[in-house]
Design brief:
Radius of gyration: 22 Å
Number of helices: 12
Helix content: 25-40%
Strand content: 5-15%
Largest sheet: 7 strands, mixed
Structural class: alpha/beta
Low-confidence stretches: none
Length: about 400
Amino acid sequence: MADHTGIYLDYNATTPLSGEVIQCISDAVVTAWANPSSGHYLGVKARSVVENGRAEIARMIGARSDEIVLTSGGTESNNMVFYSMVRQCRQKEQIPHVISTEIEHDSVKLVLQALVKEGLAEVTYVKPRAQLGVVSVDDIIGVIQDNTCLVSIMLANNETGVVQPVAQVIERLRQLGRGDILVHTDAAQAIGKVEVNVNRLQVDYLTIVGHKFYGPRSGALFVRELSRGTPLFPMLFGGGQEKSFRPGTENTPMIAGLGKAAELVTNNLPLYAAHMAEMRNYMESRLEQLLPEGEVRFNCKHPDVLRLPNTSSVAFPRLRCTARDLLSQMPSVIASTGAACHSGGGASAVLLASGVPPEDAIRTLRVSVGRETTRHDVDRAIDVICAIIQQLNSA
């Protein structure tokens, strides 16, 4: 996507609202403004909009509507999972042990650190395999303890695009007779790019984030067999909405928009994924063609590693400055050096944990294409990147 100021290649940070989503939100603002909990016909109409949105979210991931809890976004959904785990284990008078990875989003990593600091949980973090960016199933299984109650692994990494073996971890847990260990996956980056089906994955919890797939900045949490199976405890208390798991008057327009974004994914995912893969692969091939050998490297790109179709972690090993400096010299190319939530200086912790050498990590751009990205966009961006690199290296 290009606008008057630049070429947008940072779709993993956020996506624009699709036109259909904007229209859906606008319609709901005008026609479904009543309180969905009201018993009169206007409230009933607003309630139907909320429930239709919920149904589309469920359909997108192969779930039932009654397994979807509507939330403000990914951070809230992730926090709900971990605090539910703590309260469930407190009833059993034990300190829970959680297994996670060193490449998680801060909304997973920081809440786990807080729980450890407060003495409410024990956590083991597993590193991905060096240079590959993928967590080993054996490494996860190898750190299980008697009090392990939860494994939390993101479905796909936001910086490298590497898809993690969540389903394989669950299969091994069952083979070991540890079906008591629940599994959570943050699917924020995967939805809208690869198929996400809770029944194929067999996860107990799955986090959904609307603004990563052309929806509004709202989200949801899938909870398997909610109210009858997988434990969930509220973090807020109030009017009883969302079966009291997440009270507060529903944001009807945003729920409607999230449902429309989910509907678009359900109906068009193969087309979206194929287009993004074509643009990403074209970009990588153009960089290899235009830059001398050894001047570009794609982190975690390996025949045995599955990546998101839109994401490329591009290192420029011979660049005579950092990737942040490179970006500052080309404002027309809108990309990033890593996750938007930690846009400070220094090498990416995710890249370092994935075995990328520090000298390459500080020279890495995260480039993520979207549904609107064209070959012309890619050509323009690559021409600028290569020209600026040549200019900086010859200075």
